Amino acid sequence: xxxxxxxxxxxxxxxxxxxxxxxxxxxxxxxxxxxxxxxxxxxxxxxxxxxxxxxxxxxxxxxxxxxxxxxxxxxxxxxxxxxxxxxxxxxxxxxxxxxxxxxxxxxxxxxxxxxxxxxxxxxxxxxxxxxxxxxxxxxxxxxxxxxxxxxxxxxxxxxxxxxxxxxxxxxxxxxxxxxxxxxxxxxxxxxxxxxxxxxxxxxxxxxxxxxxxxxxxxxxxxxxxxxxxxxxxxxxxxxxxxxxxxxxxxxxxxxxxxxxxxxxxxxxxxxxxxxxxxxxxxxxxxxxxxxxx
Length: 293
Hints:
The chain is α/β, with parallel strands linked by helices. The protein has 6 helices and 11 strands.
């Protein structure tokens, strides 16, 4: 079953890809998950479709039974109610049926849950995310030169100076001044905690969500397989500005990450601008190559 799930995830990946870089964010009238950027999220998307094959027939069956009972056993058609109190066949069916259904749901569910807490390889880098009312502090750990910074929601008046005026890439209420930057195809450990009240670190496109609890460290991980910028939010009600506490993670190439990390030691703002310029330059090169082909 697990291999089957993984295979479906890999086969679905090209269908979601619109290029090597994109911005995954909520869309108007969206009713399905965001495009997956990790293998775990691919499995979550598959599991959602898998469960619908049970939920939809069960819902239709229950509705049909209710309609049939309402019509068949209405008072006008049954002036004398039935006194039937036992039916062995029906009792066996409504006992064995749900047990089998729950079994088919439980096996892939437990496999997915295990995968979410079991990295496929030893994490290559660790980032500590600390929730604060109402922003995030990040600390890159395990590097020769540590790096820490604060990530605040980008205010509308600060967009021109930050070079983030394109709301299709840097959406309102989700864009931040300093994104978390990680290299593609790298297993990243995230340590989540909080300094005041309970927050939650959630990134839909990665399939991760973990509570950030004061005085406690919770751990999750992800391995982004596609470059781009991804958006999440604090997912635990934490006060009046809970809705204004976005999370943004930019996934770049190994080379771009190395250059950004080195430059960020000296000047984070300049490093971010240089990285944005490098990403845009890469997009332009891809466009030229696609036209040439």
